[in-house]
Amino acid sequence: MHITLDDTAKEKISAHLNADKILLLTFEDGVGPYSQHAMIHMQTQFSINIISAEMEKSTYDEKIQSEIGDFWIKGYSKEDLQEEMTIKFNPRLSTFSLSGEGGMIDDNLGFIDFTKN
Could you tell me which CATH number the domain at 2-113 has? Predict the structure, then answer.
């Protein structure tokens, strides 16, 4: 699996990264400390999360490569992902989207930097 990011998405996400931070692609199913809610409707939802190396990540057991670093995922969330994916930033709506070769996965991909106080 691989994730490609458009230039704006790369810039916006990379601004939050350094050597001590980890990227997560969180399946929003209510499992783990960074999932914001359990799915209460039929829409698949993901979010980009940034955590520090010291923060808990035991539910994230697999990773997907990208040009800005590996995105850690909950292994079982792969069933909702695709081999080749793209994260794009929509400047008109100020939102990220996640798509794959089979089409849109999440048109409103959340973004939370858990290292910000």
Answer: 2.60.300.12
- pLDDT tens, 23-66? 999 998 777 778 776 544 556 689 999 999 999 999 999 999 99
Cα–Cα dist 16/14, whole Å: 5
Which of 31, 23, 103 shows the shortest CA–CA distance to 66?
A: 23
Q: Is 30 left (phi over 0), alpha (psi -120 to 50) or beta?
A: left
User: How much is the average pLDDT of 78-88?
Assistant: 96
Burial of 40 (0-12, 13-18, 19+ CB in 10 A): exposed
Total-model pTM: 0.89
Residue ranges with strand state E in 29-102: 46-52, 62-66, 71-73, 84-90, 95-100
User: Taken in order 4, 25, 96, 68, is the CA torsion positive or negative?
Assistant: negative
Domain chopping of the chain, boundaries = 2-113
The pLDDT score that the predictor gives to residue 34 is 80
